[in-house]
Amino acid sequence: MKIAFGIEYDGSHYHGWQCQKGVPTVQEYVETAISTVADQNVEVYCAGRTDTGVHALGQVIHIETNAVRKEASWLFGTNSNLPPDICVQWVKQVDNDFHARFSATSRVYRYFILNRNARSAILNSRTVWERRPLVLASMQEAAQYLIGTYDFSAYRSLECQAKNPVRTVSRLEITQRGSIIMIEIEANAFLHHMVRNIAGVLMEIGMGRAKPAWANEVLQGKDRRLGGVTAPPEGLYLIRVSYPEKFNLPQPELPITVFS
User: Fold this and answer.
1) Which of 110, 219, 237, 249 would you call most buried, defined as having the most Cβ atoms within 10 angstroms of its Cβ?
2) Do residues 185 and 198 lie in contact, with contact meaning Cβ atoms separated by under 8 Å?
3) Does residue 10 carry a catalytic annotation?
4) CATH 3.40.50.300 fits 106-238, yes or no
């Protein structure tokens, strides 16, 4: 049978999602915890790999297993074997045609910027601090150039292994609440470092170092070397992964903080 899990984690102390030799990763801890409950080794498949320091409120994974457990047993048993900064939000048995990655229709990321003179002790590893004032209107204008179906080669890392750089961004919104600026982007899929590179370009524009049209010039150039600095990972969150209604998966519960 196939079982889907909704996963939440603080990525501050992990070298990303994917298992790597000699360093702690989220996948390693999740696989070990679920395997303990299943009493057999299981492999997990995720909706989207996250980088070192990146967080998730709505990661989705699935496993294939012949172990029979109640959904509550999967939930509480797995959480009891996870560290405090990783947890399972929900568990659901799914049809055999479900795949956490390939069945997904879109993903939503949020990038949080603390824009004020003083850094934050509380949000130190959960937002990116930028003391120089950012002009919201300029960032919003620049964002409009990136909505649509384009070759995003200029916004992916040089190490990106995706064969096709074309992605469809259906929504890119920038809002501000107090000193927190939030970039929210939804696309059918993302390239390696795509969100962080977009955030880096938008922040350069927000600081007045480039005009809003520069976001489009970078896009049309299709060359990563034309882009700005890759924004730090601490402010990035995988918020939600969407699937066809037939799977009827629960939605992640977002904390009532700056993330709501």
Assistant:
1) 237
2) yes
3) no
4) no
